[in-house]
Amino acid sequence: MPGRGSFEVPFAGQKLTWTLNSNESDKKTAIATEASSTSNRCASTSTAAPGSAGVEKDKETITTPDTRVYPNPTSGKLWVTSSQKELKKGDVELYDMQGRQYNITVMQEAPYRSVLNIAGLPAGTYIVKVRSGQEFKLFRIIKN
């Protein structure tokens, strides 16, 4: 959500600590904070974040991120969030609009998040193909 937006963090009422990282034009910003169910920072005790797949385990909900590719458009780096904890070679593919596949390196940045550097590619429209479980998801991105 570049520049604006909100998010929900699922929790069971105990103390929760988080860090929010922003990657904008090669300038990284981070902020860390904490809250609990009794703090004024928490409006509710939702158990599943919107847009995430919840899995029941011992009456707790464990969420995994949706597959996303951002920012779009980009001038160089693309971040990929996936339901897979770690993306391996072949889990992410890049094609131009003529169907030519590009050899890209996927760098694991954190669990469920990887980064691709496409700064060396010409400006244009590309398709990023990401494995999500047993299927692939396609994302059209614009490289400035």
| Overall pLDDT score | 73
Q: Count of helical segments?
A: 0
Strand content: over 45%
Radius of gyration over alpha carbons?
17 Å
Examine the coordinates and then state which fold CATH places here, giving the name of the CATH topology of the largest domain. Immunoglobulin-like
Structural class: mainly beta
Distance between the termini: 19 Å
Low-confidence stretches: 44-62
**Domain module tally:** 2
**Total E-strand runs:** 12
Output the CATH class name of the largest domain: Mainly Beta
Give the neighbour order of strands across the main sheet: 5-6-10-9
Helical amount: under 10%
Q: Which second-level CATH architecture of the largest domain applies?
A: Sandwich
Please tell me what the overall shape is: elongated
Largest sheet geometry: 4 strands, antiparallel
- Order of helix and strand elements from N to C terminus: EEEEEEEEEEEE
Write a compact overview of the structure shown:
Helix content is 0%, strand content 49%. It has 144 residues and is mainly beta.
Record the SSE blueprint.
Layout: E1 16-24, E2 27-35, E3 53-57, E4 60-64, E5 68-70, E6 77-81, E7 92-96, E8 101-102, E9 106-110, E10 113-117, E11 124-132, E12 135-143
Antiparallel strand pairs: 1-2, 3-4, 5-6, 6-10, 7-8, 7-11, 9-10, 11-12
Task: Walk me through the structure.
The chain is an all-beta fold and 144 residues long. The chain has 2 domains: 16-63, no CATH class; 65-143, Sandwich (Immunoglobulin-like), CATH 2.60.40. The protein is 0% helix and 49% strand. The chain has no helices and 12 strands. The chain has strands spanning 16-24, 27-35, 53-57, 60-64, 68-70, 77-81, 92-96, 101-102, 106-110, 113-117, 124-132, 135-143. Strands 5-6-10-9 form a 4-stranded antiparallel beta sheet, with no helix packed on it. Strands 8-7-11-12 form a 4-stranded antiparallel beta sheet, with no helix packed on it. Strands 1-2 form a two-stranded antiparallel sheet. A hairpin with a 6-residue loop joins β5 (68-70) and β6 (77-81). It is elongated and about 55 Å long. The two termini are 19 Å apart.
